[in-house]
Amino acid sequence: MSGYVACIRKYAVFAGRSSRREYWMFTLFNFLFFLVAAVLDNLFGSTLKAGGASLGYGLLYLLYALFMVLPAISVVVRRLHDVGKSDAYSFVVLIPLVGPVWILVLMCMENDPLSNVYGPPSNSTVPSL
């Protein structure tokens, strides 16, 4: 949960680096909170309807999603910085089929162990030379 809390503390901070662990913990807890929000919307009967059919999510889900847009983008940008890539790589996800796979590969890569143009390594010490 510490990765999730760290990302919320750095709500819209696009500078710096985020470790692989911070990114994946944020992703895990974000998914779980989205799931809980969807379940609560269904329990309270506040799901949105389209053509008489329920969409499966409602106001609570949408408010949480709106609140989490900036932290989600910022943690991806900081994770890209950790592997030595620029912010522009975040737009790769817009390429159909290949883009999301490439972003997934980048999110799984080892971090750059030395300081780079984006700062010192995330939550690790700089190796002495």
Q: What do you see in this structure?
A:
Helix 1 packs across helix 2 (20-44) and helix 2 packs antiparallel against helix 3. The chain has 4 helices and 2 strands. It starts with a helix and ends in a 21-residue tail after the last helix. The protein has a two-stranded antiparallel sheet. It has 129 residues and is mainly alpha-helical. The chain has helices spanning 2-9, 20-44, 59-82, 98-108; strands at residues 47-50, 53-58.
Q: How many domains is the backbone divided into? A: 1
Mean pLDDT across the residues is: 87
Strand order of the largest sheet: 1-2
Radius of gyration from CA coordinates: 17 Å
Q: Would you list the SSEs in sequence order as H and E? A: HHEEHH
**In one word, what is the shape?**
elongated
Report the span from N to C terminus: 34 Å
Strand content: 5-15%
Q: Helical region count?
A: 4
Structural class: mainly alpha
Number of strands: 2
Q: What does the largest sheet look like? A: 2 strands, antiparallel
Residues in helix, %: 40-55%
